[in-house]
Amino acid sequence: MDMVTFTVIVDDIVYPDGHSRMAFLGGGGPQTAFGGKIWADKTDNIGIASGIGSDFPCPCKKWLEDMGIDSSGLLMWSSPTLRAWQILELDGRRTQVWRVSVGDEVWDMLRPPLCSLPMTYRALGSAGNIFSTNEKEAASLVGPGSPLEMIERIAELGAEVVTLRRGPSGSIVHRSDTRETWEIPAFHTICTMLKSSIQGEIMMEDVVDPTGCGNTFCGAFLIGYWKTRDLLIAGLWGSIAASFMAEYEGLPPPPLSHWREQAQVRLDILRPYAKKLHMPQ
């Protein structure tokens, strides 16, 4: 197993205009796995681990199968599958309201003990070199400051690689040992700027749902850094994967080959707009 993601939740999403969509496969696990699968080789194994109930929807199972994601880490629980309302606001805020009773068992379902997982999953349990956070989380952990100040504080705590996810402002990625740092724009932000010149050149939808974009970025960044050890490439892969997620209500549909083909086109467009930064001394 080359990459394992955790957490499955079935999402019922309420959008700012009041319409809703039910029974989407959600949680960080599927979203992160999708980001990784876009850039992974066909021989790379990506699996998902979580507890599920007997009510786990068949369309959710089929999406995992069609995307080639190993589901042997999905463990049958006596409790119902975790399910929640995701209420989205126009300003980007999201409120999660559980639709199941929330107790200690919920957290076990989200992160099952390593000893309960297949042996191929367990080897990755202690491997952690990249710390990824959004700006709000970073400020809560190390105190408010500029993006570079917060990255510096996180690096000082021991993170080898830091990614700071900034929504429409893109991301900043940093390597502690070399202090290499890149600012990666959000793909749709660049496309809005270039709309007239790239019209018809790529297949692209408007941003309709930001849910899970950060997780999708993480999956793609992880695969990118593992395969290339190139901070810039990993950041670009993350931004592009997140752009696909933003264009759909729920997870983008199969086939995976479509997203891999479009990812290469988007990579060529985004790459010139990455900017190397210099960390303050």
Structural class: alpha/beta
**Helix percentage:** 25-40%
What kind of oligomer do you see? single chain
Order of helices and strands: EEEHEHEEEHHEHHEEEHHHHE
Report on the architecture of this protein.
With 281 residues, the protein is of the alpha/beta class. 39% of the residues lie in helices and 23% in strands. It contains ten helices and twelve strands. It has a five-stranded mixed beta sheet with strand order 8-9-10-11-12, sandwiched between helices. Strand 2 and strand 3 form a beta hairpin. The termini are far apart. The mean pLDDT is 90.
Give me a quick take on this structure:
The chain is of the alpha/beta class. It has helices spanning 28-39, 58-66, 104-110, 119-122, 135-142, 147-156, 187-198, 213-228, 231-246, 256-270; strands spanning 3-6, 9-14, 20-26, 46-52, 70-76, 83-88, 94-98, 130-134, 161-165, 171-175, 181-184, 275-277.
Break the fold down into its secondary structure elements and pairings.
Blueprint: E1 3-6, E2 9-14, E3 20-26, H1 28-39, E4 46-52, H2 58-66, E5 70-76, E6 83-88, E7 94-98, H3 104-110, H4 119-122, E8 130-134, H5 135-142, H6 147-156, E9 161-165, E10 171-175, E11 181-184, H7 187-198, H8 213-228, H9 231-246, H10 256-270, E12 275-277
Which labels suit this protein?
5-stranded mixed sheet; 281 residues; alpha/beta
